[in-house]
Every structure is written in structure tokens, then in C-alpha cells.
Design goal:
Elements: H1 3-16, H2 21-24, E1 25-27, H3 40-52, E2 53-54, E3 74-77, E4 83-87, H4 100-103, E5 107-108, E6 122-124, E7 147-149, E8 156-158, E9 171-173, E10 178-180, E11 194-196, H5 209-213, E12 221-223, E13 246-248, E14 270-272, E15 279-281, E16 294-296, E17 302-306, E18 319-321, E19 326-329, H6 332-340, E20 348-350, E21 355-356, E22 372-374, E23 396-398, E24 405-407, E25 420-422, E26 427-432, E27 445-449, E28 457-459, E29 473-477, E30 497-501, H7 511-514, E31 519-524, E32 531-533, E33 539-547, E34 552-555, E35 564-568, E36 573-577, H8 582-585, E37 591-593, E38 598-601, E39 615-617, E40 622-626, E41 639-641, E42 646-649, E43 663-665, E44 670-673, E45 686-688, E46 693-697, H9 701-705, E47 711-713, E48 718-721, E49 735-737, E50 742-743, H10 764-767, E51 775-779, E52 782-786, E53 795-797, E54 804-806, E55 819-821, E56 826-828, E57 843-845, E58 852-853, E59 867-869, E60 874-878, E61 899-901, H11 923-953, H12 955-979
Parallel strand pairs: 4-6, 6-7, 7-9, 8-10, 9-11, 11-12, 12-13, 13-14, 14-16, 15-17, 16-18, 17-19, 18-20, 19-21, 20-22, 22-23, 23-25, 24-26, 25-27, 26-28, 27-29, 29-30, 30-31, 31-33, 32-34, 33-35, 34-36, 35-37, 36-38, 37-39, 38-40, 39-41, 40-42, 41-43, 42-44, 43-45, 44-46, 45-47, 46-48, 47-49, ...
Antiparallel strand pairs: 1-3, 2-5, 3-4, 51-52
Length: 982
């Protein structure tokens, strides 16, 4: 019941009490007796009221002339001519234009001249804007008033206590204002039938609000949503408001079970306890509310248990909302009970976001008045029942995110009222034909998508079929529509969203689609085999997303509407330069990914005009030239990836202005120079500058300013000096790669402080949205590319440097480390005895150093170890056995350690346990060595001149050979770039 219901109750009360309100009151221009006009004193009072009000749209322009009873919003008694009603509600607040309410709102001050209106019984100032003005206390002196509505009028302050003097008040609505109260005045309003204080701050009344309200015996409707009441009393000894029809207590922060006294309100028609923190099981006593039409317990999170058996016996129930809770079990018994009702009234059933299981019962098709069915985000199984076609009143059907599967029945095509359907994230199979859409004349929104790329649902629709509907929203992901582009879209001239992602379409987009003159907010045809050139003719609304990724599109990059905000064109065959005016044509871009194409030329300066840009991914192209100096004008960037290009020069110092930058990936270019300061990039999570030509010392500011760093990769450059000890303060770091540089000195002992390699820094919740890019990591003896699981990789790579000294024993505390690579340095001393405590270690490479002593026995505890390289050191003694060492059978793991023995090398000598040394030298050995060297020299000379001599002598051979080499180089480069996405 809303405003109209309350007014009806008010009028009924007046009629029953002998006061014929309808006979003596009229609003606006109506006045039955032309000889009776308003009193002069009341007219002056109204004019004084108008003087204090602001009226931007001249709503009160009719307040002129002698008879105020004819003024807009004024009602007078037919007999006495006295003003008895004042209705200045903003009538435009429900208009289609969002600004209408504001433009027509009255404001200013409310003059106490209202007190002159002694017979005023009706006052409505709702939906205006009084800018935080305190509720006028003099309203409490309007003794005859029965209807008071000040809702949504931007009043503030404390509710005046003298409102308790309004003993005749039937209807009080102060909702949606910034007001507060302790409610101690409320109990005096003994005649009150309607009370709405929604949004008021009633926290002071939280301990006693229920006993206070219980003192209102005539109350029919109680609306107290979002009032901060916090306490839902478990008991109420005596219920005084037994006639209550509507109870709205949503969003109050109640943290308890459903109180038993609620189910003694047997006249209740509407019960709303949504958006609280209620818990416990749904009680069977819900069935005692036999008049209930609307029950809303949604968004409580912790209401659990199964649906009560008696709930299905509420045959008057029109709306049931239990979404976002923990309701379990099946719904078969509940639906079966409802379907038995002679004439089930249920129109809305929302059970989404729970833990419901089982199949959807066939009796669902008997709820023929059902208009809204939301069962998404549960664990329902089985298929859609054939009886679904009986629900011809159904307008919205949401079944996404369940465990359902099987064939979608053809009876689905009988849902003639269906407007929106979402069947996403289930495992549907079989074929969709025209029969599934036969009578769906009202259909506007269709969504059937899966995150999994596996396709089991096929659309087999004739090219001659003309759909009976006009879609606005089409989202088909991981469903087969191809190999041809779907011709049935030809008459869909009202489309706003088009998603045909991973649809096995191997075709060109036909000209008729480009010519539909659509105004799109999303176009996503990624992960198909669509080819051809892309025209610039598409129109987009603001904001809009365009995703053509992972196709075979070619030609220049398309330049579309200025309304596009996200543009993904990666992994295609677009070529030529990035359009020089891209930043001028599409100035609203927030996300730009044109990586893995064949783009060449320099980075255009107009990208600096994209002031809203947050991600810029230009990687894996043929871009050259220097990085532009436009970073000061793109302050919101958090991802910059220009890796795998041919960029040269230095990193611009203006990049230090990117205070929001989280990921800077510039690897595999020809960049050089010393690193400029990036101290202001304090939120940096991934810094990848590998495979460039940077030199100088590793800057100390990395460890001082980038305290959130997760990945630091500076490999394959020419950095010198020692490893800065303040890198050890990067507590979140889980990948550190300084390999292939010229670093010297020792490994800092503080390396043991890298807590990101000791504990799991990220929780499961973090990984759902955390982007860490794509990174090359040396693991298991080879370079591997990681992307989606990069957050799981824990690696420390200091290989191919000039590091010396001993392996710090503090390394052994890095118990979450996967990969440790210290190879090709000058490390000395023995391996740490507690290295076996690095329990997560999978790859350990200490080769080509000068380590000595025996292999620690504790390494047998490394049960995940599957790649080990200790070759070319000075290790001695017996190789440990047991666990993983029994599977490490390649002798090359230990080669170059003359004093090592044991499996898989030759056994150790029995006497004294000393290893078998190498064979002693002698003349035979010397002759063998010289013979080997001479043979190699002769072989090299003959082989070299056999090939190169022919090329020198024959010009045609030489030309053919180098032409072949060029072709092979180009082919390898293309193959390598395509492999980066695998």
C-alpha cells in the first residue's frame, strides 16, 4: 500500500466519523458555491507564505486574484470558504526527464502564517527542496490536521516533539529527509493510521521503538526503512496494533532471528524485512500469515534452512523475495503446494543467490500468473521443465549461474510475454532452432554466455528466418552461431548491445550489418575467425565498449565514435601506423588495447589527449621511435604495456607524474640509459624493464617508494654495482628477476626479509580481479610465459651476473619460493644446510659457480623439486637418495663436480667411502687429447670452407642463400609473436 491507499483510509475514517470531507473540501479550481470565497485574512497568510518560498518554475503563478480558493493547490470548505487543504507536492518528480523534479521544486522558508489557516486538515509539501531547513515546529499547532506529508523535501534537524499534539493526525509521512528523533512524542498520536519515517535517524529510539509503536492501536501501515533501529525485540507481550496491514523495516541492521511476535500479526498483507542481517531458519509459522501478499526477506545473507512447507499454502501470495541468503534444499514441495491453490496469485518469485538444489519441478508450469522468475546463482540441476511453456504471462526469466544442463525445450518458444531471459553459466547442449523463439514477440533481452571456451550449444537457424521480436540486448558467448555470420540479425534494427564472443564464426561481417545504423553501447565479436577490413561507419552511445580481439581483421585501425570508452583490438592483423589523430577522434577512451598486431611507426602524440585513459596496451607490434613525453596529461593511467616493440631512447622523466600507475611493462625493446626517478609511482605492483639496454646502478628508490611491488624484472640489461639492500623491504614481492646483468658483490643477507616469498600475500578473493600482466619466467630449466596464474608464481632469479661470496643461509627461510636460480655467478662456500626447509621449491639452479662441500641431506625433504642443476661447481661426497632424488636421473645435473658420486653418477668407493676420482693422467691421455683437438680443427676448416667457400665463389648461390635466410627470419618472428598468446 502506498500513498493512494493511505489517502483512501483517511477518507474512509472521516466518513465513518461523520465528517463529510468530500462534501466540504475541494482542491484547485473547484468551488460549488460561487458566492462563498476565501477569507481575506487567509489569503494574506497564503501570500505571505509565497513570499518566503522560491519558485523557479512559477508553479504558484496562479496565486493572484481575490478568491484564493481558485489558486493552484488550495482547497476550501464549500460551506465556510475557509482553506482546509494545501497541496504543494512537486508533481514533476515522477516525470520522464531526470531534471524535472529539481527544476520545479519549491524551496526557501515556510512562514508561520500557516497558523492562520485554522481549519487546515491536509498539508502536502513533499518532493520539494528546502535545502536542509529544520522541520517547522509551529506545524505542531495545526490542531485539526489529519494528513501531513513532508516526504522527500530535504528537511533537516530534529523532528519537533510538539507533533505529538496533533491528536487527529491519521497520515504522517516524513520519509527521505535528513532528520532524527527519539520518538517519545509518537505515542500521543492515538488516531494515526499511516506512519512513514523512512531514512530518519532513529538510533536513539532503538531500545524502545517497538513498545512505542505498539501504543498506536489504529495503525495500519508502518514504514521505518533505513532508520538505524538495530534491535528487533524477540518478544512483545501484548500486541496492540493488531490491525496492521503493512510493516516495512528494511535496512535497519537487525542482527537476530525472525521474532515470533511477527507471526501474530495475522492481518499483515505486506512484510518487508529485507537488507538486514537476519539469520536462522525460516520458521513454519510463516504459514500463519494467511493474508500475506508480499513477503520480502531478501539481502539478509544469513537466513538459511529450507523453504517452510507451509509457505506454499499462502495462496494469496503475489510476491516472494528471498534472494541473497543461504536458503538450501529443493523447491519442489513449495512449488507443488502453490500449484495446488485454486487460483495461485504468485506473480514474482525471487530465490536468486542462495544454495538451492535439485531439479525445477514440472508443477512450475501451473503458476500461470507468474511474471518474474529469478532463480539465478543457485545450484539447481537438470533441465528446464517442458511445462515452462505454460507460463504465458512470464516477462523475466533469470536462471544464470546454476548447474543446469541438457536440452532447452522447444516449449520455451511459447512464452509470448517474455521480455528478458538469462540462461548464462550453465551447461546447455543440443540445438537451438526457430521453434525456441516461435511466439517470443515481446523479447528484448537474451543472454546465454559461458566463461568456459568449450561450446556445447549450437544455433541452427535458417538464413530465411525472420524473428518475431526486435532485440535490444543480445549476449551470446561460447555458443556456436557460425561458421557464417548469423543472417537472422538482419532485421534487428533496435540492437543496442551485441555480443557474439567465441561463436565459431569464420566469415566476414556482411555489409548489411554495418549498414543497420545501430546506436550501440557494446559490440563484442572477440575470439572468432572474422576477417576483412573494418569500416569507420559504426555509431556508439556513451559510454560504449568495442571488442574485436582475437580475430583475423586486417587493414588500418578503425576510428569510431567519440563515445567509445573501451577499445580492444588485440591479436588481429591490423597494420600500418596508429592513426595520428586517434586521441582526437576518440577522446573518451579509458581502456585501449591494440597489442599483438602488425602496427608500425611511432606512438602518436595525440594519445596524450586521452585524459581519461586508465590502460594503454601497445605491446607485440613493430612500433619504433622514442616514448613520447605526454604523460603529465594522462594522470589516471594504471597500466602501461609497450613491451615487445622496437622502441628506443630513454624512459621519459614525465612518467614520474603517473601517481596511479600500477603496471609498467616496457620489456623487449631497445630502450637505454639510466633509469629516471619514478618515486611518485608509489602504488606500483609490477615493474618489468627486462630485455633492454639500461645501465648504471639499480636505483635505491625502487625499494624506498614502491612498497606495494609484486613483480620486479630488470633482467637482460647492463646494470652494474651491487643489489640494493633496500629491495629487501619489498614485503609483497613474489617475483624478483635481476638475471643477465653485470651485478657484483654479494647477495644481501636481508633477502630473508622478502616476506612475499615466505607467506601467501594474496587471498583467493584478491585473485578474482588482480591483474599482473604476462611475464616470462625461467622455471624448470626453460623460459615460460605466465599470465592468468602469474599471481601464483614465486621466483628469485639472480643468474648470469658476477655475484660472489656465500649463499646466504637466510635464503632458506623463503619457504614459499618456487624457483631459485643463482647459476652462472661466482658464489663460493657450501650450500646452506637448511636448504631442505624451502618446502615449495620446484626449480633449483646453482650451476656454474664455485660452491664446495657436500649436497645437504636436508634436500631430500624438497618433495616438489622436479628440476635441479648443480653442475660445474666443486661439490663432493655422496649424492643424497630418497624422495625426489630418485627421479632426478639425468647425470648432467651433477656434471662438472669431479668429486661427486652416487646415483645417477658412478658409485662411491667402498673403502673409506671416498668417491671414485677421475682417471689418472698419462701419455695415452695426452695423445688422446691432442688427437681430439686436431680432429676438431680439421673438421671445422673443412666444414667452414665447404659452405662459405661456395658462397664466396658463386654469386647465384650466395643470393639464393641469403634470400632463404631472410624468409626464415620473417617466418620465425611471426611465429614467435603468435606463440606469445598461447
Amino acid at each position: 500500500m502506498g500513498h493512494s491507499t493511505a489517502l483512501f483510509l483517511l477518507l474512509s475514517f472521516l466518513l465513518l466519523s461523520g465528517t463529510s470531507y468530500l462534501d466540504r473540501a475541494t482542491l484547485g479550481f473547484c468551488n460549488a458555491d460561487p458566492n462563498v470565497g476565501c477569507m481575506d485574512i487567509e489569503k494574506k497568510a497564503l501570500l505571505k507564505l509565497r513570499e518566503g518560498l522560491t519558485d523557479p518554475s512559477d508553479r504558484l503563478s496562479s496565486w493572484v486574484g481575490i478568491d484564493c480558493c481558485k489558486w493552484r493547490g488550495i482547497g476550501c470548505n464549500k460551506t465556510t470558504g475557509r482553506v482546509d487543504s494545501l497541496d504543494l507536492r512537486n508533481p514533476y518528480v515522477d516525470g520522464l526527464e531526470s531534471d524535472d523534479g529539481t527544476l520545479h521544486a519549491l524551496g526557501g522558508e515556510i512562514n508561520p502564517s500557516l497558523l492562520v489557516l485554522k481549519d487546515l486538515v491536509y498539508l502536502d509539501l513533499s518532493m520539494n527542496n528546502f535545502g536542509g531547513l529544520e522541520l517547522p515546529s509551529f506545524i505542531g499547532s495545526l490542531e485539526k490536521i489529519t494528513y501531513l506529508n513532508l516526504s522527500g523535501a530535504s528537511f533537516g534537524g530534529v523532528i519537533p516533539a510538539n507533533l505529538g499534539n496533533l491528536s487527529k493526525l491519521l497520515h504522517l509521512d516524513l520519509s527521505n529527509n535528513a532528520i532524527e528523533s527519539d520518538l517519545r512524542w509518537l505515542s500521543s498520536l492515538s488516531s494515526l493510521q499511516f506512519l512513514n519515517l523512512g531514512g530518519a535517524n532513529l538510533t536513539k529510539a532503538a531500545p524502545y521503538w517497538l513498545p512505542t509503536v505498539n501504543m498506536l492501536p489504529s495503525l495500519l501501515e508502518l514504514h521505518l526503512p533505513g532508520c538505524g533501529l538495530s534491535i528487533l525485540p524477540p518478544t512483545l507481550p501484548h500486541i496492540n496494533f493488531t490491525s496492521l496491514l503493512v510493516l516495512g523495516l528494511s535496512a535497519n541492521g537487525f542482527n537476530s532471528t525472525l521474532s515470533p511476535w511477527l507471526f501474530n500479526l495475522t492481518e499483515l498483507v505486506n512484510l518487508d524485512l529485507s537488507r538486514n542481517n537476519l539469520n536462522g531458519e525460516l520458521p513454519e509459522t510463516l504459514g500463519s500469515l494467511t493474508h500475506l501478499k508480499n513477503l520480502d526477506l531478501s539481502e539478509n545473507s544469513d537466513i538459511g534452512g529450507q523453504l517452510p512447507r507451509n509457505l506454499g499454502m499462502l495462496c494469496d501470495l503475489q510476491s516472494l523475495k528471498l534472494s541473497i541468503n543461504k536458503v538450501t534444499g529443493e523447491i519442489t514441495e513449495f512449488i507443488d503446494s502453490l500449484s495446488i491453490c485454486t487460483n495461485s496469485s504468485l506473480e514474482r518469485l525471487d530465490l536468486g543467490f542462495n544454495s538451492l538444489t535439485g531439479n525445477l519441478p514440472n508443477s512450475l508450469g501451473l503458476l500461470k500468473k507468474l511474471r518474474y522468475l529469478k532463480l539465478w546463482h543457485n545450484s539447481f540441476q537438470g533441465s528446464i521443465p517442458e511445462s515452462i511453456g505454460n507460463l504465458t504471462s512470464l516477462e523475466e526469466f533469470y536462471l544464470a549461474e546454476n548447474k543446469m544442463g541438457g536440452v532447452i525445450p522447444e516449449s520455451f518458444g511459447q512464452l509470448s510475454s517474455l521480455v528478458a531471459v538469462d540462461l548464462s553459466e550453465n551447461t546447455w547442449e543440443g540445438v537451438i532452432t526457430e521453434a525456441h523463439f516461435l511466439k517470443l514477440r515481446s523479447l528484448k533481452e537474451v543472454s546465454i554466455q559461458k566463461a568456459s571456451p568449450n561450446i556445447s550449444l549450437v544455433f541452427n537457424i535458417s538464413s530465411n528466418w525472420i524473428p518475431p521480436f526486435k532485440l535490444r540486448y543480445l549476449n551470446l558467448r561460447s555458443c556456436q552461431l557460425g561458421p557464417k555470420f548469423p543472417v537472422w540479425l538482419r532485421n534487428q534494427t533496435e540492437l543496442v548491445t551485441v555480443v557474439l564472443n567465441n561463436a565459431k564464426i569464420a566469415d566476414t561481417i556482411p555489409d548489411w550489418f554495418w549498414q543497420l545504423d545501430l546506436l550501440l553501447d557494446e559490440l563484442d565479436v572477440a575470439y572468432n575467425q572474422l576477417g576483412g577490413k573494418v569500416p569507420n561507419s559504426l555509431r556508439f552511445s556513451y559510454p560504449a565498449n568495442a571488442d574485436l580481439s582475437s580475430n583475423l581483421f586486417e587493414g588500418p585501425l578503425p576510428l569510431w565514435s567519440s563515445n567509445i570508452t573501451t577499445l580492444y583490438l588485440r591479436d588481429n592483423f591490423f597494420s600500418g601506423p596508429i592513426p595520428s589523430n586517434i586521441g582526437d577522434v576518440m577522446p573518451s577512451l579509458s581502456d585501449l588495447d591494440i597489442s599483438r598486431n602488425g602496427l608500425s611507426g611511432s606512438i602518436p602524440l595525440s594519445l596524450g589527449n586521452l585524459s581519461l585513459l586508465t590502460t594503454m596496451v601497445l605491446s607485440n607490434n613493430y612500433l619504433s621511435g622514442e616514448i613520447p613525453h605526454f604523460w603529465n596529461s594522462i594522470p589516471n593511467l594504471y597500466i602501461v604495456d609497450m613491451s615487445n616493440n622496437s622502441l628506443s631512447g630513454t624512459i621519459p622523466r614525465s612518467m614520474d607524474s603517473l601517481g596511479s600507475l600500477l603496471y609498467l611493462i616496457l620489456s623487449s625493446n631497445n630502450l637505454s640509459g639510466e633509469l629516471p626517478s619514478l618515486r611518485n609511482c608509489t602504488g606500483m605492483k609490477s615493474l618489468d624493464l627486462g630485455e633492454n639496454k639500461f645501465f648504471g646502478n639499480i636505483p635505491a628508490w625502487i625499494g624506498e617508494s614502491m612498497l606495494s611491488l609484486l613483480i620486479l624484472r630488470l633482467s637482460s640489461n647492463s646494470f652494474t654495482g651491487s643489489i640494493p639492500s633496500n629491495l629487501c623491504g619489498l614485503s609483497n614481492l613474489h617475483i624478483l628477476d635481476l638475471s643477465h646483468n653485470n651485478l657484483s658483490s654479494h647477495i644481501p643477507r636481508c633477502v630473508g626479509n622478502l616476506s612475499g616469498l615466505k607467506t601467501s600475500v594474496l587471498s583467493d578473493k584478491d585473485t578474482s580481479y588482480l591483474y599482473q600482466g604476462k611475464l616470462k619466467v625461467v622455471a624448470k630449466g626453460r623460459v615460460q610465459n605466465f599470465d592468468s596464474i602469474l599471481y601464483l608464481v614465486n621466483s628469485l632469479d639472480l643468474s648470469n651476473n658476477n655475484l660472489s661470496g656465500e649463499m646466504p643461509r637466510e635464503l632458506t627461510s623463503l619457504i614459499k619460493l618456487w624457483t631459485l636460480n643463482l647459476s652462472m655467478n661466482h658464489l663460493t662456500g657450501v650450500m646452506p644446510s637448511r636448504i631442505g626447509s624451502m618446502e615449495s621449491l620446484e626449480t633449483l639452479d646453482l650451476s656454474v659457480n664455485q660452491l664446495s662441500g657436500s649436497i645437504p641431506q636436508s634436500m631430500v625433504s624438497l618433495t616438489f623439486l622436479n628440476h635441479l642443476n648443480l653442475s660445474y661447481n666443486n661439490l663432493s661426497g655422496t649424492i643424497p637418495t630418497g624422495n625426489q632424488f630418485n627421479s632426478l636421473v639425468d647425470p648432467s645435473i651433477y656434471e662438472g663436480n669431479a668429486a661427486l658420486c652416487g646415483f645417477p653418477l658412478p658409485d662411491c668407493q667402498v673403502n673409506g667411502g671416498t668417491p671414485q676420482g677421475p682417471r689418472g693422467g698419462g701419455e695415452d691421455t695426452v695423445f688422446e687429447m691432442w688427437g681430439f683437438i686436431i680432429s676438431m680443427v680439421i673438421g671445422f676448416v673443412m666444414g667452414f670452407w665447404g659452405v662459405c667457400g661456395s658462397l664466396v665463389i658463386s654469386k647465384s648461390w650466395r643470393k639464393t642463400y641469403f634470400h632463404f635466410i631472410d624468409k626464415m627470419k620473417v617466418a620465425c618472428i611471426r611465429k614467435y609473436q603468435r606463440a606469445q598468446d598461447i
